Amino acid sequence: MTIVDTPTPTPTARTHWGGSADRQETDRWDAVAERVAAVLGEDALARDRANAQPFAEAELLKASGLTTLLDPAEWGGGGAHWESALRAVRILSRTDASIAQLLGYHYINSANIALVAPHGERERWHRESIAGRWIWGDSVNPVDPNLTLTADGDGYRLNGFKRYSTGSGVGEALLVNAVVESGPEHGRFAFLVLPFGHPGVELVDDWDNLGQRLSASNTVTYRDVRVEARNLLGFGTDEPVQSLITPGIQLVFGNLYLGIAQGALAQARALTNARPNAWFLSTADTYREDPFVQRLYGELVSRVAAVEALADRVNRRFDEVIGVPGGVDAQARAALEIEVARLKVVSSDTAVDVTTRVFEATGTSSTATRVGLDLHWRNVRTHSLHDPVDYKKLEVGANFLTGAVQPISLYT
């Protein structure tokens, strides 16, 4: 018997991402994000109080190039990696977590071009999005299954509503998920993209929450909305690579919370250094020299540094998985989900604790409305309730003990 070596064919890349970001790339986009964060930080508190739709902030993101960072370079995009995008979200959240959320959700929503759209349609979607400088909002809240999508000729009709539709108030593209309830595609999970101002789509300006007030996360209602064939991005499949959107958005959360904690520490440090004198029982001359104050910062700074190290590792791992030629398998997808869940647990708990306890070092004066130190806590306390962190702890613990993996969903 003769054995003939047959060369293994090189698999076709499932997405346009591949490899990892180098230092030059991350330094470049870090600098862009830091410039934008500095501008946002000038009046973040005033804009939070005004609670207006963030049209000007959206234009700032577009002008900076951050919105096209992940798009293919050959079609006019930044050609960068997820690590750079996630670091940008983290940097912006240090001064304005609302706009960081807007950018992070945009990255996830627009990534569906690569994960959902048929190969032959991706160039069109990328070119239109890049040329139009689209910000992608979403209307996909899975706990609001109140949409009806029915066949209508060569298109569909959409009715219902969705709450918590981040970016819908200012985005040029609105990503909508709905199950087809009639026609040849009955039962399929559809990804629709509707332009801003599409007939029958009503944006309800009802987002008036404790924090993340400029994330444009209002309710959207749909009244007999005509959906043309060109508005269909694609359908959901059982491909593990397509479901990377869930660990992707949870990874955005982890970097968002980390950035908020870093921003709170930076502001608190400035306030503590500016405090005169010290507590009357202290042997120190100033609060900054008080051993109890130094101990508090030592604990909080160390915990945040540990979260940062984990986030950096998982950010890079996400690039490695999503860029696998031929697409990621179920095992790799599950392993990534657990890594991201760990980050969600520690970043959420750490950020809530840090943004609360910094007041112990900054004193009563820092609770003044004009100071705005509470903005960090309000933002992380609001967004960290997106999905219960206790269920992430259960997910991680069950996997550690038994190897159990949660079923794929828009939360796991």
UniProtKB/TrEMBL annotation:
Signal peptide boundaries: none
Ranges for region Disordered: 1-25
GO BP of this protein: L-leucine catabolic process
Presence of keyword Nuclease: no
Keyword annotations of the record: Oxidoreductase
Pfam families listed in its UniProt record: Acyl-CoA_dh_2 (PF08028)
Domain Acyl-CoA dehydrogenase C-terminal: 252-387
Positions with biased composition (Polar residues): 1-13
Molecular function GO terms recorded: 3-methylbutanoyl-CoA dehydrogenase activity; flavin adenine dinucleotide binding
Gene3D superfamilies documented for this protein: Acyl-CoA dehydrogenase/oxidase, N-terminal domain, Butyryl-CoA Dehydrogenase, subunit A, domain 2, Butyryl-CoA Dehydrogenase, subunit A, domain 3
Record InterPro entries: Acyl-CoA_DH_C (IPR013107), Acyl-CoA_Oxase/DH_mid-dom_sf (IPR046373), AcylCo_DH-like_C (IPR036250), AcylCoA_DH/ox_N_sf (IPR037069), AcylCoA_DH/oxidase_NM_dom_sf (IPR009100)
Name by which UniProt lists this protein: Acyl-CoA dehydrogenase
Species assigned in the record: Microbacterium caowuchunii
